[in-house]
């Protein structure tokens, strides 16, 4: 069973996905962390974000994997703190636009879930990575609410975060391949005026119904 969740930065996807996965004993796959790990490895080697040859080099010489639900670079788990710096926010957003990067990461995502019950979240999970997921959710919230959440999480200035989120949204929504969008069979949840618990409860109810339905049809 796959629960696929997409949404823009700051919509609450990661928090919700990890809580739902824990509650149901599902594997939690955070696709953004693959983009972040790729970007971290690329910039750590002093490579540029605007050079196709250097990006190709990074695709050829990095090995990304999952160890106990954490992303690993060349066999070593990377800390969340290292994946969530401002530099990596920007580099992962810029590199995620490149189709070859996306194709490689999609392959890794599909390999990591084989035979598992999974909650996977990102930008193109419902549309490209797992288009046959049994349950698809599109989480959204107003841009200012998302900026406030991010700023509170990181202790940053709301206006600066708002501007940075707008850049990331633009890249996410206008990619040639794997752009962020709500697919027809995804259930949209606007979280602007909802608490994390309210969103969590809604999704748990949907997943329980989905699991019951699949049990009944397999009888
Ligand atoms: O979800 P996040 O903010 O941690 O993701 C980091 C970057 O990776 C973000 O700028 C968008 C990109 N991303 C993507 O393009 N496709 C995904 N499925 C997940 C993330």
List the helices and strands in order. EHEHHEEEHHHEHEHHEH
* Low confidence ranges: none
Tally of contiguous helical segments: 10
Residues in β-strands, percent: 15-25%
Between the first and last Cα atoms, what is the distance in angstroms? 16 Å
Radius of gyration: 17 Å
Largest sheet geometry: 5 strands, parallel
Oligomer: single chain
The percentage helix is: 40-55%
Order of the strands making up the biggest sheet? 2-6-1-7-8
Average of the residue pLDDT scores: 96
- Shape from CA axes? globular
Count of strand segments:
8
Structural class by sheet pairing and helices: alpha/beta
Question: What small molecules are bound in this structure?
Answer: 2'-deoxycytidine-5'-monophosphate
């Amino acid at each position: 069973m796959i629960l696929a969740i997409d949404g823009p930065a700051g919509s609450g996807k990661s928090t919700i996905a990890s809580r739902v996965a824990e509650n149901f004993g599902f594997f939690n796959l955070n696709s953004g962390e693959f983009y972040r790990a790729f970007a971290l490895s690329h910039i750590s080697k002093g490579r540029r974000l605007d050079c196709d040859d250097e990006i190709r080099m990074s695709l050829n010489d990095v090995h990304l994997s999952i160890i106990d639900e954490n992303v690993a670079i060349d066999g070593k788990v990377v800390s969340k703190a290292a994946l969530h710096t401002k530099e990596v926010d920007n580099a992962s957003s810029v590199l995620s636009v490149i189709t070859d990067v996306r194709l490689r990461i999609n392959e890794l995502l599909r390999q990591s879930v084989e035979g598992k019950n999974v909650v996977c979240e990102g930008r193109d999970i419902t549309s490209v990575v797992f288009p046959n997921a049994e349950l698809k959710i599109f989480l959204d919230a107003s841009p200012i609410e998302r900026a406030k959440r991010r700023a509170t999480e990181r202790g940053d200035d709301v206006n600066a975060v708002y501007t940075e989120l707008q850049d990331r949204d633009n890249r996410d929504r206008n990619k040639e391949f794997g752009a962020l969008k709500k697919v027809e069979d995804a259930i949209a949840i606007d979280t602007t005026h909802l608490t994390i618990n309210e969103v969590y409860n809604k999704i748990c109810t949907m997943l329980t119904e989905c699991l019951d339905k699949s049990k009944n049809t397999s009888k």
